[in-house]
Design a protein that fits this description.
extended, five-stranded mixed sheet, alpha/beta, about 600 residues
Length: about 600
């Protein structure tokens, strides 16, 4: 829509067939009206334009002509080769320079000017001239507008509310139509979303979002958004609350010196509806206007903003609301605003004022004495590396739990995606899970064999091509005792064998890729031992009885069979391939010179 979106973004002015006539950036209302799209229906009253999307596809011709620019002298400062050769780094815009020169209505004189779009970074005129000569009229540039009623809409995600709306549009039905789903004792509503998180014995309400968090015995009510919560226990997150735990730097370039200990963080807390007016002086915090909030909490304006700060600048972003803490258990200082939000959910309760009074008595002075940061200050003090490391930690523990679930409870599902992710991230945690499952007395033989085969897969993946051929001997004397004990029917022997192999593996891992491949071969041999034992159990269902009549004593019994050739899929029906992909073999039976070549007498 032109009235509330287009004037803040880039817009394509299109011809009838979709060819781009011009790229407009923060254009005037008159320019936007001239670029509006035909109405989808005669009754549509909202004027719409083709808003620029961040996705651009280059075909082979366009990509080739673009790459040729790297060899022109004017573009040398735009590549690392030129910068490493001493050039002063320079650049140009994908949309306002490169794509803008493709517009059919753009003239050479207009485009050659160094800056032709409002807000554009200054670009050298010679560079734009080269773009024009190399690309204009050489490449057809078309845009495909999305219809207003199409579910595949472009969304600009700038706030937690935007993120919640985006996630809510996902149409995958993870619950199978059930009103809720259970995971590790947690009840998660079918409309809630848990992303890269571990929730144990939690209750997650409709429309709630939990991402990059570990939560135990918590309740997340409808519409709440939780992010980066680190091993949280016993917390109740009220409806519509935005909760994010952010690690802090001890020192920040260009910021005031930190006055808190290492491993400190803030828990950013506000209601989703607080985001839209967060830059306005008449905004809200926890859905309460500032005068109401100050009255109920006992806080004064000087606690939040500097005395010389203009009234217009006294906004949510500038308010020093969030205490710096080292602990975030439920009921701690870091969660004081969560507690307060819970009190404000039902203001009609008779004892509401009593609860606010108790909150003031408990937290007001403690909060005042604590170092505090505003949202603006958090931008300078946030330790992004710690947060990324935490996301990686959650992903690792999630993979471990997922692997255990798939092996024990979803035995028909593939595990390759988990193995690939762990190897790509250079993590060894899955091996301990495989050891535990293989060594457990109640693990079926086929599952134990699969875990040993997966251990071989992980070791071989880390060994790579430098380790040599995957196939080879597996009779090293160091491993012989473990492989022999693995063949025992005694569950204690199997456990001892798995633990012995773990010790050998830890010794060999540090010896390089060749040792990893050799260890993988011995784990494959161990898997074959258990497969043999599992196959042997078929004897329980087979009865062999002597023939009633042995036949004449002077006769031979002969068997004949044709030759067989595999056309496709040979050996895919054997472990470890069949564990993950099933395995299908296509073969033919053949006569050789009209005879069956295989026989027994």
């Amino acid at each position: 829509p032109i009235s509330d979106v287009a004037h803040r973004h880039g817009v394509y002015k299109l011809e009838k067939g979709g060819a781009v006539r011009r790229v407009l950036y923060r254009a005037s209302e008159a320019e936007l009206l001239a670029a509006k799209l035909p109405s989808a229906t005669n009754s549509e009253e909202v004027a719409r334009v083709a808003k620029v999307c961040g996705v651009v596809f280059f075909d082979e011709v366009a990509a080739t002509r673009l790459l040729e620019l790297a060899f022109k002298a004017d573009f040398e400062p735009c590549s690392y080769l030129g910068i490493d050769n001493g050039a002063q780094p320079s650049g140009f815009s994908l949309f306002l320079d490169l794509l803008a020169c493709l517009g059919t209505d753009v003239s050479f004189e207009e485009f050659a000017r160094s800056t032709s779009f409002a807000g554009q970074v200054q670009v050298d005129a010679a560079l734009r001239i080269q773009l024009w000569r190399q690309l204009h009229d050489q490449i057809q540039f078309k845009a495909v507008p999305v219809e207003p009623d199409d579910t595949a809409q472009y969304m600009s995600v700038r706030t937690a509310q935007d993120y919640a709306r985006l996630v809510a549009t996902l149409e995958e039905d993870v619950s199978g139509g059930d009103p809720g789903r259970s995971h590790d004792g947690s009840i998660v509503d079918s409309s809630a979303h848990v992303v890269n998180s571990i929730v144990t014995t939690c209750k997650v309400g409709p429309g709630a979002i939990i991402e990059s968090s570990m939560m135990n015995d918590c309740t997340v009510e409808a519409g709440a958004v939780c992010s980066g919560l680190k091993r949280m226990k016993g917390l109740c997150v009220p409806c519509g609350l935005r909760l994010q735990q952010i690690a802090l730097l001890n020192t920040s370039p260009g910021a005031a010196a930190a006055t808190w200990d290492r491993d400190s963080f803030c828990v950013v807390t506000y209601r989703l509806e607080d985001e839209a007016p967060q830059l306005e002086a008449d905004g809200t915090f926890l859905a309460q206007p500032w005068p109401v909030l100050l009255r109920r909490t006992g806080i004064v304006a000087a606690d939040l903003w500097a005395e010389n700060m203009p009234l217009a600048s006294r906004t949510l972003q500038a308010a020093k609301l969030f205490p710096v803490v080292q602990d975030t258990h439920a009921g701690s200082l870091g969660m004081l605003w969560v507690d307060f939000a819970g009190l404000g959910q039902d203001l009609s309760r008779p004892a509401c004022n009593v609860w606010f009074d108790l909150w003031r008595r408990r937290w007001l002075q403690v909060w005042r004495n604590a170092p505090r940061l505003s949202l603006n200050e958090l931008l300078a003090h946030a330790d992004v590396s710690v947060e990324l490391e935490w996301q990686d930690t959650v992903a690792a523990e999630t993979n471990v739990l997922r692997a255990r679930q798939l092996l024990l409870h979803h035995r028909g599902e593939s595990l390759w995606h988990v193995l690939d992710d762990e190897v790509r991230r250079q993590r060894w945690g899955l091996l301990d899970v495989f050891d535990d499952i293989a060594a457990a007395a109640d693990t079926p033989l086929d599952v134990a064999a699969r875990t040993l085969a997966h251990t071989a897969e992980v070791l071989a993946a880390f060994g790579g091509t430098e380790g040599g051929l995957r196939s080879g001997s597996a009779r090293n004397l160091q491993w012989r005792s473990a492989l022999a004990r693995l063949a025992s029917q005694d569950a204690n022997d199997r456990r001892a064998a798995v633990l012995e192999m773990r010790i050998l593996r830890s010794q060999w891992i540090g010896d390089g890729p060749v040792a990893l491949i050799r260890a993988a071969r011995h784990y494959e041999a161990a898997a074959q031992v258990l497969i043999l034992m599992a196959t042997a159990t078929c004897s329980e269902f087979i009865t062999i009885t002597p023939a009633l009549s042995p036949g004449p004593s002077n006769c031979w019994v002969e068997f004949e069979a044709p030759a067989r050739i595999d056309l496709a899929g040979g050996w895919t029906d054997t472990p470890p391939v069949c564990y993950e992909n099933g395995g299908v073999v296509v073969n033919l039976a053949l006569l050789v010179d009209g005879n069956r070549p295989l026989s027994a007498r």
